[in-house]
Amino acid sequence: MTEPKKSIGYIAVSDIEKSSLPQVMPTLLKEEFKGNVSDVEVNYPKELGTVHPFDFNKVEQIINNVGIVSSAVDKITDYIIGDFIVKTNDPKTQTILDNFVEESNFKTVIRPWIKEGLSKGNGFMELDLKESKVRVMNANWMWVQRNKKGKVLRYNQYIGNKNKINMTSNNVTEFKVNEIAHLPVNKIPNDAYGIGLVNPNMRTINNYATSEMGLHKVIERKAGAPIHVKVGVGQEGVQDEDVDAFKASLQYLTNSTEWVTDANVEMSVLDFKDVGKNLTDASNHDVEQFSMGMQIPMVLLGVANVPEGLAKVQMEAFQRFTNALRKQIEDIIEDKIMVPVLRANGLDADVEFEWELPGEEEKNLRLDTIAKVMVNPFLSPELKAALEIEYAQILGLEMENLLVQPKDAQAKADEEIKKQEDAIKQPEVPGEKPTAKESSKVTVKEKVECSHTACNLTESQISEMTLAEYVNITEIPGFNYTDYLVKILQQLKTYKFQDLLAITEKDLIEGLLPANEIEKLRIVLKNGFRKNLTITQIEKEISQKMNVPDRVKLEEDGSKRVTLSSEARPKAIARTETVRLANAGLKDLYQENGIQHYRYLAALDDRTSAICQELNGQVFLVSEGSPGNNMPPMHVNCRSTIVGLVD
Questions:
Q1: Range of the domain at 377
Q2: Same domain, 435 and 374
Q3: Which of 360, 385, 379, 397 is nearest to 516 (CA)?
């Protein structure tokens, strides 16, 4: 029995479909689904796309004018959004993604995009991946065009009269599929759009608004105290002109008017009885219906009289609801934004987007755990101080305003740690280097003329050097500046800044930096390396964006001695930490590529420290290199660097 003959052919693709395919990475065309979709196209012209399922503009007006609806959408958006991380296994792709998130201001742009999706059912984000730019489009003017199988061919933006659409090059903008990230929320299967959270609740919203208007109308009338007047005696007719005359006289009635009538005139204030209560009950009912329809707990809508057990159940259900929305948003960000970013740079890798910021429940659990641990009487002073700092950070408190003088035992322990740190930082400590030991097998010292870019330059000239020039990153065969930059930025993500970070209360008193300031420094340095800023620009960023106090030394008598002023510290931090990170990144790159040795390269002039002069030209094993030992920085404001030696 012969096997059936395999047929090889081509899949026919329209020009529009071809234009929507990614242009960088090859695409495998798969057979489309057999089932068709029945899109209702815009009457004229049909090329605009599928008609909107409802009036997006009406929802926008509701959001802008009805407070309870706007508040509900904002609260759901805030519960979804938190800090996030984008992870991939490849270091180079990780750097590209990190840079894209920062350059595109993605953490800020993502909020209005998600809010559009929740309210109108459709969030549209324009992507300019080559320039690392994104922006949110108003869904009111965006249309989706699909083929009969439901495949999106392109997106169209039309701004003009919707009742008489006239497509021209001036009012219609076409977008390829990879130029728009479409977030459909509450999507009906096979439909082009989502219906969001507001439109399904439109009847309830209208009922609520009607009840509120009626209630306030009643209150307004009751506040005016309407008066009902009976003229004449019962069973006897009254002339119309007498009624009209009395009615006219009432127009002059004020709070200071005294009225005296005979027995034939009876005046009373009109009582609406339970009309107001009925309207209030109807309004409360509408709020409950709105809460269920939006799947948001009553307590988040400001309703206080909710039983504790019911509130807890509602919050748990709400957490599941927002987690499901988060998962949908994660998938779209991964597939429609982050993966195309890599493809636009000629790369391809698996990308994982994760929300990182813990919710209120996680924060409370962490606070409870820290509180239980801190009551342990055997807890070390260092760990207790670290937990206190974390506790305050979770609560959003400023540590500098809360800390008190440390206990004697803790001060003694901290003093020993401080002595070790000071010993590492001292610039003038010549002598035998630890790396000159026999185990290294490398004790070569060569007379090397100064080839550092910072040699024999004035302070003003050094300040205007870019970071690449200042740290003297020399391109050796097989590596370029981009390779070095990737490793430096990887080091920056996890570097602890041990010489600057405050661990104990005493550290803060002496001018070391709390964790929130360290994170600001991390951002400043990341921006500096990525944009290759000058030393002066880095110093300015540190001065403007950070709170850097004087560096002080606590004397035995309890007095404080300023060792470095707050004005001088930004320059010292900029110069020292850029050198530290650059050389740590170079070491990682050398190790990864099998470079076994490096040469210590100092900037030789009249400002060179004795220890850097001694180390200049010496060759060391890469595996044994460590800052402050045989690798720069050997001291504050160190200008030395290392150069890999290719065997």
A1: 358-397
A2: no
A3: 397
| Each residue's pLDDT tens digit, 162-195 | 666 565 556 788 999 989 999 999 988 888 999 9
Asked if 297 and 315 touch (Cβ cutoff 8 Å), the reply is yes
Burial 275-306 (b: 16+ CB within 10 A, else e): ebeebeebbeebbebbbebbbbbbbbbeeeee
Q: Is 551 helix (H, G, I), strand (E, B) or coil?
A: strand
Q: Report yes or no on 140 lying in a domain.
A: no
- Which residue(s) pair with 59 in the sheet? none
Q: Judge whether 409 lies within some domain.
A: yes
Is residue 481 domain-shared with residue 579, that is, in the same domain? yes
DSSP state string for 581-605:
HHHHHHHHHHHHTT--EEEEE---S
**What is the rounded CA–CA span in Å between residue 173 and residue 156?**
6
Q: Which amino acid is at 486?
A: V
In order, the DSSP letters of 58-125 are HHHHHHHH-HHHHHHHHHHHHHH---EEEE-SSHHHHHHHHHHHHHTTHHHHHHHHHHHHHHHSEEEE
Question: 354-369 b/e with 16+ CB inside 10 Å = b?
Answer: ebeeeeeeeeeeeeee
**Residue 60 pLDDT class (50, 70, 90 cuts):** very high
570-606 pLDDT per residue, tens: 999 988 888 888 888 888 888 888 888 888 888 877 7
How many domains would you assign to the chain? 2
Q: Is residue 385 situated within a structural domain? A: yes
Residues 544, 472, single domain; the answer is: yes
Tokens of 44: 């004229």
Q: Dihedral, CA atoms, 485, 490, 495, 500, nearest 10 degrees?
A: 30
Assess contact for 569 and 551: CB atoms under 8 A.
yes
3-state secondary structure at position 553? strand
Is the same domain home to 527 and 585?
yes
Q: Does residue 332 form part of some domain?
A: no
Of 123, 159, 160, whose CA–CA distance to 139 is shortest? 123
The answer to whether the bond into 633 is cis (omega within 30° of 0) is yes
Q: How far apart are CA 288 and CA 314, in angstroms?
A: 12
- Tokens 């990182």 -> residue: 356
**H and E: helices and strands count for the chain:** 21, 15
Dist. CA 321–CA 626, nearest whole Å: 49
Residue 59 confidence class, pLDDT cut points 50, 70, 90: very high
Provide the whole-model pTM.
0.49
Same domain, 376 and 481: no
Amino acid letter, 55: D
